[in-house]
Amino acid sequence: MSSSDAPESFHFASQLYIQAGAGRVWEALVDPALASHYYLAPLLYPLKKEGGHVAYGTEERAVISGVILDYRPGAALRHTFAFMQPDGTRGSESTVLYDLEAIGDDLTLLRLIHGGLESRADFESISGGWPVILSSLKTLLETGSPLQWPPRLPGHAQAGPHASAAGVR
Predict the structure, then answer these.
(1) Which of 44, 69, 137, 169 has the fewest Cβ atoms within 10 angstroms?
(2) Rounded CA gap, 17 and 119, in Å?
């Protein structure tokens, strides 16, 4: 198959500087107590090792699930990502990479790449959430308080870390 015959895939990429050390940024990515303040849905359990599971949602239902592919504390976290459908099946799978670069003791460059999205619809489903998630993460780490979420994100029924599991997508 030539490269022109390869199926097209989509990706979302962003980078931002956070006035916090790489260890603190890492902690916010893997600790449910912190992640639940800035992410669309609460992180259900700590992210601890390569091969471990990732789940965001509620006690009743995970809305995002995946498997950790790369776990390097303070440097990189990569995991698969799939929305869970109401019937319990997994949607199409993609990959999220958080790449952290320490710049001195109190500044971190965070690069996020959400790749392998199979369709424009998948891309549109995730692209409205990432800018708010990353902005809220930055705000939380720099001020101690999360960003005030907009009541609605483009393409989403509800937004914010306390949106119902049914409204997250």
Answers:
(1) 69
(2) 29
Give the range of the structural domain holding residue 143, as residue numbers without chain letter.
Answer: 3-167
CATH code where residue 91 lies: 3.30.530.20
What DSSP element (H or E) covers 27? helix 22-30
* Per-residue confidence band for 18, with pLDDT thresholds at 50, 70 and 90: very high
DSSP bridge partners of 51:
none
Cβ neighbours, 10 Å, residue 162: 11
- DSSP-derived 3-state class of residue 28: helix
Structural domain total, the chain: 1
This prediction has a pTM of 0.85
**Model pLDDT, residue 165:** 40
